[in-house]
Amino acid sequence: MREFLQRTALWLVTITVISCGFWVSSSADAAMLALAICLGAWLAFNLYHIALLMRWLRHPVPERVPDGFGVWHTVFMTLYRTMRTQSQSKKKLTHVLERFINAGEAMPDGVVVLDELDRIEWINPMAVEHLGLDRKRDVGNQILNLIRQPAFHAYMKNASFSQPLMLTFSQPRELVISLQLVPFDSTRKLLLTRDITQLERVQTVHRDFVANVSHELRTPLTVVGGFLETLSDMPEVNDQMFRQFLPMMMEQSRRMQSLVEDLLTLSKLENSPKAVNSERVDMRDMLDTLMVEAEGLSQGRHQVKLLRNCDCGLWGSSQELHSAFGNLVSNAVRYTPEGGSITLAWQDEGDQLRFSVSDTGIGIPREHIPRLTERFYRVDRGRSRGSGGTGLGLAIVKHVLARHHARLEIKSEPDKGSTFSVVFPRERRNDSQAA
């Protein structure tokens, strides 16, 4: 601008000097004519460039800035550089905005941008999933009209956003959402959402687990403590009383020991690496051992049979598999009435291998089958405790099978019996022991 003014002043001085020269050398009329001609030329020159400028302003593109003459060349070049700088800044800002939007789109948490009236300005896909919103229809609407839970309305009204709010949605599926509002300038706010459904389930399982362990340990401890208190209060303890109390105390002690051992086994499985150390598992020896254990638990009260149509072994952990199979066998013995039969089977089914334990016991109602592998889940609590179970056996089985890429199949009918089958994939087969 300064250069433009300087050059304009120079032109005016030049025209004045020329006019004065004509005034001195000629007449006043000649001087006025010369002045008029110079001013007209100067005006036409500027009007021409102003016309170029106005035409360019209709479509202001940096690449189409006019190429003027003289002082206008400087003006147009300055305008061109300014436009290029603005264009580059605009591209940079557009790129930053695109990156911000892409980052928001990819975030695992939900993000909703609200204006000063709590109307939605922008929403990412995860927030759509969490809050059941529509990205096209709901933009511009107030968030309070879309989320109608009273707790959320109270949260927005109180304007105390230091702590998150927990909301539970039941449709289209059960979700527990942690929601927090974060003001980020004088008028706008971010509504952040996070799906904590799985975390809430884990915490619920943890609370139930602690409660169940406490309950399971409290009962035998109460019994043993009661007997000890009774014995300590008696002035004299005769042999008959001692013989009466001692077996019951030992039974409760064994029950606590079994529970602690199962808890340790379960903890070890959960904290072990997912990949099991594979070794050759001799299924002939395993089946013979399981038969001896089943007959020992049965004490002649059941008919125990073994069926096998192959001598192949497995790749896996012998100790873990023995623990899983042993739990299935002991369950069959415990829940089969006297006179019933228990059958252990090892079968090659072509594309898979199957170990199964079948019994003619009390059976399990169908609605209970999906939950049998949960910790401490019992179909009949009274009968389970009476049989000596800890409620952790099938949970241990589930973890062992997961580490061996196997699955558990359960078929059962009340009062007819049950069949628990462990199905191994073909790659677990080991034929070396058959040689």
TrEMBL record:
One Pfam family it belongs to: HisKA
Membrane protein topology class: Multi-pass membrane protein
Source domain of life: Bacteria
Top EC category: transferase
GO annotation terms (biological process): cellular response to phosphate starvation; phosphate ion transport
Gene transcribed to yield this protein: phoR
Residue ranges of the TM segments: 9-26, 32-54
Keyword terms of this UniProt record: ATP-binding, Cell membrane, Kinase, Membrane, Nucleotide-binding, Phosphate transport, Phosphoprotein, Transferase, Transmembrane, Transmembrane helix, Transport, Two-component regulatory system
Species name: Chromobacterium sinusclupearum
The name this protein goes by in its record: Phosphate regulon sensor protein PhoR
InterPro entries on file: BphY/WalK/GraS-like (IPR050351), HATPase_C_sf (IPR036890), HATPase_dom (IPR003594), His_kinase_dom (IPR005467), HisK_dim/P_dom (IPR003661), HisK_dim/P_sf (IPR036097), PAS (IPR000014), PAS-like_dom_sf (IPR035965)
